[in-house]
Specification:
With 817 residues, the chain is mainly beta. The longest helix has 17 residues.
Length: 817
């Protein structure tokens, strides 16, 4: 290990669920604590011997999907031998946490060094003065998910990765580089680089490092092939004295160390830039090298994209001068069967599937995402409205421990961490300061919005600042006038009146109903000042259980139906597969390969309880399915809903036509056929000018005869962190996918070789089965397993899936360095 190194410390932690007296004591015996690796979420694990992570008597009830929080401890031992003392004695040690939910306390060798109340923002701590070389060092973290703090599944624990890095005494400050591109032409781009440099006085047994040094900074811009395409050198960087750069026991804590700071602002001219966009997400890399007294010390690299954002009511949103409508969705942060754990591949897969479904933008409701998610968005071209809070001064409903309980004490540090961590991501197009803030129609809300906006602008003025508001009209004017771009939650009927009163205001649907997709999208297409639509919600999630089936009503808290655990309101299901509403988006937006699709209305409610029409059913989608297997409908008629971009569609059953119908904007690109249920093949054909151009097939399936396994990946990194999703689907003897719920079976997964089974899930919103068992019931013919590689073990991972009376199958992965 040397200076500028970042050892992976996510492996080999110890975990104890429940409080421990003197849990930070370095002499505490933890041999009986559970061995785990980070990231980790204990709320998704089975409760005791129950074989389920769900509890009907959970304090948070439907809010978090009947999961449990509580208090837990994590511990990690790190060896810093005597040789490292020589290499690192004058270095700065930075411990960064990607996310801890929540109320964390961090100890190093028994001393409290920091922590954070908020569960969603990353933070870092300078632990230099607490490490001891030549002996074992203990990191201990206490976490307290104290319930009544979230309206959706939050997870519990150190659910995002942790890093420990060593930097020279004089170094580029952590999160201290900020890259913007204020001037972009075809011939050149002006790249502005704002850099903070820190020089610490490190007290070691043998030396006190000095801060009176000659410092220079060299900056190089590298293209994707690693070629230097632009550079700039700054000499004689000046430093000024400082004693601390943040409050005690919070992010950036120096723990009393004394040093100096410097600030360098540079403009680098890059000829003939390649721009970043959703369709061509080109990334450059800024390499910064510090030279201290003639010796190269710190080297950092920062990825960035060159792109130009513009928002105005006349031209809408433009990216690099090109108009772009935001086809958006909202997402919560959980990864369903993994809980809130943010493995890199899980986050990357989520971005891939969002883009594959035709969306080009997300709103991170209602908290910052993981770094891995934003890195994937940068690389793959997904636009992001990055949101930070769900509450400011007032708690929501009876959530007495939500962010409002700490807002006044913590907002400034949390907002700083939020902006500094994410401001170099080209995917981030706006900062959102909050969602449906309770005090939005009060002077307190106006003043708070102004205060937050001013602080964000002091850190980054290169993006618009917005908010998600469920208010409009004169009562909302003082609040909404704080923002030039306003997100409206379910306020579409006010778009035109708001524009008439404030013609310069740019708007977007920050939350919209999926079952009104056509209506919402007409506003976006017809009104230039409405730049996009973000459906609630894009990806199904744990918590707000059954809101997408039974709806919502004031009586909800007494009637929310356990064992529902999922909201069931996503256009993409909890496993990442498109539901019918997402196929409708293909037609509505005229994107993707699905220009025609057909779904069948269930003759009886496919889930229970039956929907109550007196409740608010706005988030509920039609009970339609991609299946022509309905044994309970023999001798009856069924409704078949067809989505189509074509002028006409014709429906056939076993070759017999049941007529043609028109599809057009006037029909919302959809139509319904009522036809008799006859086993066999249902086919719909799309015609333009009388010519058949595309078709969609649904086949009656028999009993399941085979399990088919599918994975997008063929190999895994042997790092103990990499994962693969393996989808198991049921097929009958004729090769037709089995969907009907009467045919679901228990599938058992077995993993051998250089990996392990991490989790199994089926996206059933009423399932309370264990995610960590190797067996789980299919839901509509499908179940998914997540497999993880072992650390530093090269070889094969073989996954076998079997079910009683059905032909089993297996799939093999290679593990590699």
């Amino acid at each position: 290990m040397d200076v500028n190194s970042s050892p992976d410390i996510n492996l080999d932690w110890r975990f104890h669920l429940g409080d421990v007296k003197q849990g930070s004591d370095v002499n505490l015996d933890v041999t009986n604590w559970q061995k785990i690796q980070l990231p980790h979420d204990w709320s998704i694990k089975d409760i005791g011997s129950s074989n389920s992570p769900f509890d009907k008597n959970s304090i948070d009830q439907y809010d978090t999907g009947y999961t449990k929080g509580g208090i837990a401890w994590y511990r990690k031992e790190i060896e810093l031998n005597s040789q490292l003392n020589t290499e690192l004695k004058d270095s700065v040690a930075i411990l960064e946490f990607g996310g801890i939910y929540m109320n964390s306390e961090v100890y190093v060798n028994g001393a409290l060094v920091g922590g954070q109340h908020y569960g969603y923002t990353s933070f870092w701590i300078d632990i230099t003065n607490h490490l001891k070389f030549g002996q074992t060092n203990t990191i201990a973290v206490k976490v307290n998910n104290n319930h009544l703090n979230s309206r959706w599944y939050s997870g519990s624990g150190i659910y995002r990765p942790v890093s420990l890095s060593f930097k020279p005494a004089t170094h580029i400050k952590h999160w201290g580089t900020f890259v913007t591109t204020p001037v972009i032409t075809d011939e050149f781009a002006s790249i502005n680089v704002d850099t903070s440099i820190v020089s610490k006085s490190i007290v070691s047994k043998t030396n006190v490092s000095k801060t009176n040094k000659k410092i220079s900074l060299t900056q190089e811009v590298l293209d994707q092939q690693g070629n230097v395409v632009a550079q700039q050198r700054n000499s004689n960087v000046s430093l000024t004295a400082t004693s601390s750069d943040s409050p005690k026991n919070s992010s950036n804590s120096t723990n009393g160390s004394v040093g100096k700071t410097g600030h360098v602002n540079t403009t680098i001219t890059l000829p003939r830039p390649t721009l970043w966009s959703g369709s061509s997400p080109y990334l450059y890399k800024l390499k910064q090298t510090l030279v201290v007294d003639g010796v190269q010390t710190d080297v950092t690299e920062t990825e960035f994209g060159i792109r130009q954002l513009s928002f105005d009511a006349k031209n809408g949103f433009t990216l690099n001068g090109q108009p772009l409508l935001l086809k958006g969705l909202n997402i919560h942060h959980d990864n369903y069967l993994l809980g809130s754990v943010a493995y890199k591949r899980a986050e990357e897969r989520k971005v891939e599937r969002i883009l594959a479904a035709g969306f080009n933008a997300v709103r991170t409701a209602h908290n910052p995402p993981s770094v891995a998610f934003l890195n994937a968005a940068d690389r793959l071209g997904l636009l992001v409205i990055n949101e930070i809070f769900d509450a400011w001064n007032y708690s929501k409903f009876d959530h007495k421990n939500d962010y409002a309980s700490r807002f006044k004490q913590d907002w400034q540090q949390d907002v700083s961490n939020f902006i500094k961590r994410d401001r170099n991501h080209p995917s981030v197009i706006m900062w959102s300061l909050g969602n449906e803030i309770p005090e939005q129609n009060e002077a307190l809300g106006v003043n708070t919005a102004s205060m937050l906006k001013a602080h964000v602008l002091s850190l980054d003025s290169s993006r618009e600042i917005t908010v998600g508001a469920n208010t409009a009209g004169e009562k909302a004017d003082p609040y909404l006038n704080v923002f030039d771009v306003v997100g409206y939650n379910y306020q579409e009927k006010n778009y035109k009146s708001e524009h008439k009163r404030f013609p310069a205001r740019v708007m977007y649907g920050s939350e919209t109903y999926s079952n009104l997709a056509f209506e919402y999208w007409q506003y976006v297409e017809d009104l230039p000042y409405v730049i996009g639509d973000f459906v609630w919600t894009g990806w199904d999630y744990i918590g707000e259980a059954s809101i997408g089936w039974t709806g919502y009503a004031p009586e909800w808290k007494n009637l929310a139906p356990y064992p529902w655990t999922l909201a069931y309101t996503g256009e993409i299901d909890a496993l990442g597969f498109k539901r019918p509403a997402a196929y409708y988006r293909d037609v509505l937006w005229h994107t993707g390969k699905n220009k025609i699709s057909a779904f069948v209305q269930s003759p009886n409610p496919s889930l229970s309880p039956e929907q109550d029409p007196s409740w608010y059913l706005y988030w509920v989608s039609p009970d339609i399915h991609p299946s022509w297997t309905w044994p309970e409908a023999k001798g009856k008629n069924l409704d078949v809903v067809v989505y189509s971009v074509f002028e006409e569609v014709e429906l056939f059953i076993n070759g017999k036509s049941y007529g043609r119908q028109i599809t057009s904007p006037e029909t919302k690109f959809m139509t319904t056929f009522t036809v008799p249920y006859i086993e066999g093949t249902l086919k719909v054909v799309g015609y333009n000018a009388g010519v058949a151009e595309d078709q969609w097939l649904l086949n009656t399936a028999g009993k399941p005869a085979e399990i088919r396994l599918v994975s997008q990946r063929k190999s895994l990194s042997a790092d103990g962190q990499d994962i693969a999703y393996v989808t198991a689907e049921l097929y009958d003897a004729e090769g037709h996918r089995v969907y009907h719920w009467d045919q679901d079976v228990a599938v058992e997964f077995n993993v051998s070789g250089t990996g392990k089974l991490l989790a199994v899930g089926n996206a059933n919103p009423r399932s309370v089965e264990s995610f960590t068992s190797n067996s789980r019931q299919t839901f509509r013919g499908r179940v998914v397993a997540v497999v993880q590689s072992n650390n530093r073990v090269i070889g094969d991972i073989t996954v076998t899936a079997k079910a009683k009376g059905i032909t089993s199958n297996k799939i093999t992965f290679k593990t590699r360095n």
